[in-house]
Write a structure and sequence with these properties.
- The structure is a single chain.
- By secondary structure, this protein is α/β, with parallel strands linked by helices.
- It is built from 15 helices and 18 strands.
- The chain has helices spanning 46-54, 76-82, 98-103, 118-130, 146-159, 176-192, 204-210, 228-231, 234-241, 281-289, 304-311, 327-337, 356-366, 387-397, 406-415, and strands at residues 6-17, 20-31, 35-39, 61-66, 69-70, 83-86, 164-168, 196-200, 213-218, 221-226, 244-249, 256-261, 271-274, 294-300, 315-319, 342-345, 370-374, 401-403.
- The strands form four sheets. The chain has a six-stranded mixed beta sheet, sandwiched between helices.
- α4 (118-130) crosses α5 (146-159), α5 packs parallel to α6 (176-192) and α13 packs parallel to α14.
- The termini are far apart.
């Protein structure tokens, strides 16, 4: 097995400015051909970290190694051949041509007295070709769109022929189409050219999609570091960004992606949901976003609805994985039910293992609570030889109402206020 070369090592780096601690004990590494996405709120220390890695700032303590050499032992001209940085707000000279702008990346390689040589011209051509801007070589920078300018700046960095590329929010002012164009370009560069990339991003989903590893900063410290699945968790997002999010797996990439939950002020009747197997996911998400207080159960631990409830901080009566409903779980659900006004039965199939959930609904109805039942394919959801159907018919005879969509469910709930 061939060992993958380590391009960047950051060891126990701290940095203070005017006695204020900006970074504290930062440690991570970056392999050849990897992209590290750096995430964190404003003031977390992301830009400061890039400036330390580039050599623009000296750490208060700790070391930075590039290709195994301590950064500040590498002469500036040699350092510029190993690493390139694209700052967030770099002033551009509009009267320079694209070729002239990219040629600035070759300054470490030629004498200003004698000017660029043939190999420098060739390096500029290669860099422009890589970013798809060769046809723009004689265009003035002032004539380019935002996305085109970013590609030219990346070409200038590539003309340095670095092994490490650093970018500080390179897509922040671009529309979605140009954001994706830049990120797919970076992905191609790391895969085909084995370029190592450190990229500060503000979009969690894009960072997850395009980064091999993520570094999540909070108040100048590492909250999490590792693969996207390890870093993007509800707990980390709550601690760092103070947001509540549902995390799912992208079906195409298997990378995590988030949906942010915005909770309105609590409203309407309290609701207990009977669900399982993903049948209650959309109901929970919509009701939470509308401000309803919800409980769930009985549902098995590990069930997708159980995981949704956990991410939404919904109280849950749980049962062991794959186990039928026990007396203990049943009584816990009964306690939750007695604190609510409405019982909702999601479009869940009923078998012998979860049939007692319908018994819960029957008890709730006898205590005067409203019962709402998803009316989709009721007979096809009964796997108890008619037992579940019989209970549902009894619920209907005693005033339970059917709903056939979440919008219809919300309309009924509003009528109950």
């Amino acid at each position: 097995m061939i060992a993958i070369k380590t391009i960047l090592e950051v060891k126990d780096v701290s940095f203070s400015y005017n006695e204020k601690e900006i970074l504290k004990d930062i440690t991570f590494d970056l392999k050849e051909g990897e992209m590290l996405g750096v995430l964190g709120p404003n003031g977390a220390g992301k830009t400061t970290l890039l400036r330390i890695i580039s050599g623009a700032l000296h750490p208060s303590k700790g070391t930075v190694l590039v290709d195994g050499k301590e950064l500040h032992h590498i002469p500036p001209k040699e350092r510029a051949k190993k690493m390139a940085i694209l700052p967030q707000n770099e002033p551009l000279v509009d009267y320079l041509t694209v070729r002239e702008m990219v040629m600035l990346g070759r300054i470490p390689y030629f004498s200003l007295l004698f000017g660029p040589k043939k190999k420098d011209e060739e390096a500029v051509d290669r860099a422009l070709e890589m970013v798809g801007m060769k046809g723009f070589a004689n265009r003035k920078m002032g004539q380019l769109s935002g996305g085109e300018r970013q590609k030219v700046l990346i070409a200038r960095a590539l003309a340095q022929e670095p092994s490490l590329l650093m970018l500080d929010e390179p897509i922040v002012h671009l529309d979605l189409s140009h954001q994706l164009e830049i990120l797919f370009l970076l992905k191609e560069l790391k895969e085909k050219k084995k370029l190592s990339i450190v990229c500060v991003l503000h979009d969690v989903n894009l960072a997850s999609c395009f980064s091999d590893k993520l570094l999540l900063l909070r108040d100048g410290r590492i909250q999490a570091y590792g693969e996207p699945q390890e870093v993007i968790t509800p707990d980390n997002l709550k601690k760092v960004f103070n947001i509540q999010a549902i995390i799912r797996s992208n079906p195409l990439s298997a990378r995590p992606y988030i949906s942010i939950i915005h909770r309105k002020e609590s409203r309407g009747p309290k609701v207990h949901l009977i669900a399982g197997g993903g049948s209650g996911r959309e109901i929970m998400e919509r009701l939470v976003s509308e401000g309803y207080s919800i409980s769930l159960g009985v549902v098995n631990v590990g069930d997708s609805d159980y995981e949704t409830a956990e991410s939404l901080e919904i109280q849950c009566a749980e049962e062991a994985p794959f186990a039928p409903i026990s007396d203990e779980a049943f009584n816990r659900a009964l306690e939750l039910l007695r604190e609510t006004n409405v019982v909702i039965i999601a479009p869940i199939p009923f078998g012998w293992g979860n049939l007692r959930n319908l018994e819960l609904a029957r008890l709730a109805q006898r205590e005067g609570k409203v019962v709402l039942i998803a009316g989709n394919d009721l007979e096809e959801r009964d796997f108890t030889n008619g037992k579940a159907k019989k209970i549902i018919e009894e619920l209907m005879q005693n005033g339970a109402r059917l709903f056939h969509s979440i919008d219809e469910l919300l309309k009924i709930l509003r009528e109950l206020v």
